[in-house]
Structures
1.
Amino acid sequence: MLSSWRARLGWSAVRLLLTVVVVLGVFGLFLWGLGRDPIKAYQDTFRLNILNSRGLAGVLARMAPLLLTALGVAIPFRAGLINVGAEGQFMMGALLGTWAALNLEGLPMGLHLALVLLAGMVGGALWAAVPGVLRARGWVNETITTLLLNYLAPLVVGYFVFGPWRAPELAFYPQTPEYPASARLPLLFGTRLHLGFFLGLFFLLAYAYLINCSRWGLELRTVGGNAEAARRLGLPVERWILAAMMLGGALAGLAGVAEVAAIHTRLKLDISPGYGFMGFLVNWLAFANPLGILIMAFLIAFIASSGFTLQITQRLPYAAVNVLMALILFIVLAKPLAQRGKR
Amino acid sequence: MAETPVLRLVDITKRFPGVLANDRVNFDLLPGEIHALLGENGAGKSTLVKIAYGFYQADSGEIHVHGKKVEIRSPRDARRLGIGLVFQGFTLIPAMTVAENVALFLAELPWLVRPKDLRKTIWEASQRYGLELDPATPVWQLSVGEQQKVELLKLLLAKARILIFDEPTKVLVPHEVENLFRVFASLREDGYSLVFITHKLREALTCADRITVMRQGRVVGTVRPEEASEESLLQMMFGERLVEVAKAGTGRVPGEPILELRNVCTKPIGTAPGLEDVNLTVRAGEIVGVAGVSGNGQRELGDAILGLLRITRGRKIFLGEDATHWPPRRLIQRGVAFVPEDPLAMAVVPWFTVLENLALLDPRRFSRLGGLALDWSGVRQLLRAGFAKLGLNPLPERARAGTLSGGNLQRLTLVRELNRPYHLVVGLYPTRGLDVRSANAVRQALLSAREEGKGVLLISEDLNELFSLSDRIVVMLKGRIVGEFRPEEADLTEVGRVMTGAGVVHA
């Protein structure tokens, strides 16, 4: 049993390495075709984002929202649901968290921050509850509703940042006032790395343990593994579907509020470079495996950071990095059909 | 006979894991005849025609078409030889029109389809055989009977001369059946040869030129309807089977009622019938068998008892309490166990281990720290004790359910379901598709449940099994209970007649 587990891990590592090599190769060709020097580009990227402590902290800071949004996709995934809506849940988490940040001022330091984060989770959970209810009732497929709600969330946020919550001091720019100090997530070591990263790690560990070892994990996986059997075993299938969606939404919402509370310090429309979608990619690459989520979140965070490096060192548009991410997605999707849907 | 058969199947043998579906079957179809293939569910009729259509490959045996030996490796080959099959479930695309569905099936379709021509061809063909279809109608708007006509039309336009119908009347209402038989007759006049699968005696007697009866994978005989009677056909279908398992404790007085259904009704879903005024009592220490041709409400009966199907009228009493609208969870907690027909689809999670699947017995029971952890050693103990209790070797605890054979999966389900505190066990075709040993393990488990004073409801289509295990047998037809027998007072033929709607006994 242990040896087969090791063999599986070894095989996953080989596949991961192969994916990286192919992706770097093809993207290198792409760079070369644009008249850039791929070797130099990769060297710079590596030097500035891994070997440089400030750069590495930036990568880890980017991992924070990715870990949380990936978990936001992974939990529903284990219940057999496809949550494409982490992006919208991220925005709504930021929105409700901002409400708490701006309206509960005066509370003690730690308490205020805790309430802000909690409000963010509630925001994401409520946004995810809509597709959750629709799916649990058997009315609408959650893939479609979560996707469509992604387009709605920025409009709701837009209403508040253009309207009632708009900061008076910089009225030409649609954004809310700054979070009070008591509502901010502390940055660490004078870098962009913030407490959200450790929140992400904490929830990843909690997920890894609970999904595999707890009764709730067993029941949730049963619903995802064979809903018919779950129903016949008397498990509350509808409730689990809703719970899985809301838990996922809560973590994506937490990602959103943490990002604002640590990095942006005020709510505006461009708080996410697509963290929700990247989280979906992370989970798809990792197949809801906790260790896989950790590795893939790091990889995607590194690639996203590289985009900025390449902008500076190679004068490449940031969009080039989207090409890279799409490449990865294609290569992963090319994995044999037989391996999908396992676990 | 001077005529060369258009289709001749010689010594066809086909084995599925654990089942001998066709055992040296011989069958021939003459030009311009309607040949009925009659038999119980699982007699091997469908398998046989699917081999002729290239859907399955025979393990051994030969196929001759128009006197020449042929190899049929795929439905494509069969169609090239002019063989067409109308499946039980249809293969139409609901969003497309009749014309489009037909066009999809035609091999020699030109690159550019002229819809007008196509529609004209379809219109003509459908008029000729009284099929009366509008080619421009989307398929989803058609009734089941009309969809069947589209399937037939597809075959006719693809120039099939040998038409096989796999239980075509199963989905039809009576007047549609009459209509279909008229179509059959006009096809015969035009020289088509037809194979028609059914388990209904009257249909075979009404419309066929010859009737071949199959039982347990073998051909019992071929007769002409004018030489046959309902009795003789029933005899052929069910045989003079002897009761194999000694009935322990017959004549015993059963105990208190455990489950009572009073005038229970449910809504029909799709083509499946709803329950209509079902009255049924299962007492402690008795096995009540439910017989019937599948699709006559047995599954609905099971689901209504298990709380999975809403009871729209009537009452369900479980252990003296009104349980009409209890959810499944409550019924399970109060003591209802369930052994399904297809454990992989209905009872286990394929990529869970044996141990994890066993823990699903009741995740709460194995919870530790309020659910934060699970008591795996408790589950392991259940694995050992449960299998020992049924006299079985325990399965490897780390094996994934999806890798187990059907028999082992059913053992796993039995161990799980019969280790709840339960009073009633519902078996829904629990031995279907199992090898003999596994099926006997299930039967043995049900018998010992009765010995322990549990109530057992056994839904099965194996009359032999029902006769050997049950204390009482009820027969279902179209969602109603149409007969009740004591196995020691009735014989298979009688029950078979009621099952096939040949005669309704008012219990």
2.
Amino acid sequence: MRSLRVLLVEDDPDHVFLVRRALADLPGAAVTVEVAGDGEQALERLARSRFEAGGPPQLVLLDLKMPRMAGLELLGRIRADEATRDLPVVVLTSSERQEDREEALRQGATWFVCKPTDGRRFRSEIQQLGDRWAGSTP
Amino acid sequence: MEEAASPACVLDGHGRIIVANRALEVLLGVGVAGGLTGRSLPSLAYPPDEELAHAAVQQVLAEGLDRCQVEGRWVRIHSRELVWGAWDLSLVRDRRGRPELAIAMVRDLTEMKRSDHERRFFQFMFKLIGEADSSHQVLTAAVQTICHFTRCAMGQVWLPAGGVLVCSPSWYCSGYGFEKLHAASEAVNYELGEGLPGLAWAKRQPLLLEDIRDTGRFDRAIAAQRAGVREAMAVPVTGAEGVVAVLELFVTHERAGEPGRLGRIARVAEELGPLVERRRANEALAASQERFAAVTEAAVDAIVSADSSGRLLTWNNGAERMFGWTADEIVGRPLTVIIPERFRQLHSDGIARVRRTGTSKLAGQVVELSGLRRDGSEFPIELSIGSWNGPEGIAFSGVLRDITERKRAEAALAGANRELERANAELETLVYSASHDLKSPMVSLLGYLEYLRLDYGEVLGREGNRYLDRMADSTMYMQQLIHDLIDLSRVGRSGVEPTEVDLGRLVRAIAEDAGAANPAIEFRVGRLPVVTGDPVGFRQLFTNLIENAVHHGGHADLVVAVDGRAVPDGGVELSVRDNGRGIPREHRERVFGVFERLEGTSSSAGTGMGLAICRKIVEVLGGGIGIEGDRGTDVRIVLPAAVGARWPSHELTAGASR
């Protein structure tokens, strides 16, 4: 049984539910999802996680459009910090703008996923992400 | 006496010539020697002077006056020319002292009298001409003088106008009964060479018609005869520019046949030509000055002129209104009066430069400057400057327009433009936010639908599941609408650098994809150019058009052809054509609207935005798009020369992509 700890940075509770549910249904893996409602909370979580037993999360799922701190700024801060520099950060956003994708990748996003409208596809894309990173760590 | 150089004769007691010397015979034009013998001296006189001659002879021969002198005119026997003579009669008495004979010595005064007469003629005429107000009056005055001095009864002026001679309404006559003749003249026009005046006009020579009863040569004979006219003359008045007028003069029976008359009139006419021309030039100048003044005064613009030192020469009403100075107050003062302090140095430098170089940099240009009103306020002006070389060196004219209103309008427009740009930017942000914010709830909606289906699908049953499907479809459709709205708003806005787009390659790729999804449809891609533009736009354009053809063709074995051709102005015409069911003529414009789909085509997929996007893409490129074709749909796109089309040397024809 693989395990995966995910930090989901997302302010929309419905999307939080959908991501949680998709990852919870991921076959053959025990996924823990922690949620940060904005960038500041996310940084706080990451800082605290260094002193916790499991260490930092194996994957950060990051929405671009959030209150207080924009996703890209948070991404910059994560990449600027020695401790989180190599953390896989997947940008997960509603935006379909090519510019946003390019900018996110330039800022150091590991991957960029545009949230599919179709519920079935949304579920499978999230599960693919979980599957991929769950496999990478024991 | 025979040998005497002076003309002389001997008269008998009755005043008849006994003997005349050769000199007298020559003077009076007698061909044969002794031709004067027996004629009485008074009978040789010109009729009006006959009485005078008779009285002189009487005084000597009848009253016994020893000596008598008389001046008078005499008529040469054959030529009927007039001769002026001063006759000196001396009485010869018989032995008883009674008057017996008289000896008459004649001094020929003709030359003297003639030149005196001509001098007075010219003097009189020039005086009248000097008093004339117009070139027209000059000619009338000349006709009047000519009539007076050459004993013509009537004279009138013909003027060339529009290729014909027209009789001027002003004329002169020395008696009554010529009105009908003048009216008859006014009623006709003569072409070159036509009628007596027209003939003189054509020949540029004075002409004399000795007897106007010769109807073949004179067409107004009846009117002329009633007025008692015998002779008619037409004398052209010629200036440097050609014939300026033709004078027509009429002589009555009793004055007819006076020799030398035509020649005298012709000499006068020679003097007249240059005078009339000069007067006309002055008139034209005056008229043009008058017109200029009228235009200038009526103008709303300020029209001013200045000399080479920058002193104002003229100042129109517009300038008075604009600057608050009257012409009286400002003419003669330097131009700097109307120039704001801070520009005066520039102006002085400019004037100095013009005086040095003789040319003006600003002449012929329009510049925007500030003007200074009398009350010290400034206002924006537009100035156009002309320069010319006047008698005192270079001079300037300026037309100044108050552009306060225009400046205000420009500022307002610039403000409106900024506002528009801001609004556009705002709209763009709005559209992108909308794409995100509208999408988020749909993600939620469809996400929950998925879980509803997964978790409660069995509970809901078949009907419940169908509802779920309908909800999902509708939400997806809404998603598509939002997509297309964003696409439409993006066209022409993205700051994409125009690049070279190989339309042939692009269309073949799109056709290949479409062909893979619709194997029954045949795609034909013809010769298409390489153009310059937004590659994304072109991709969207052809994708939409090909998709439309595929979706709305109406049958499976469709043929879709894309073709291009160069048009004469350097542009391109492209065509995407299918043999499907086509679009009724009445809907061909409507389909380019936003959200327009043809009703009754339930199979129609899409949001109805495709063609609206296409039209916008084409219009952003400066082109046009429309639908042609009687069978199937033929979408024609015309792009301007600005797309810089380059055509491949080889042609790709049918079946290039399938």
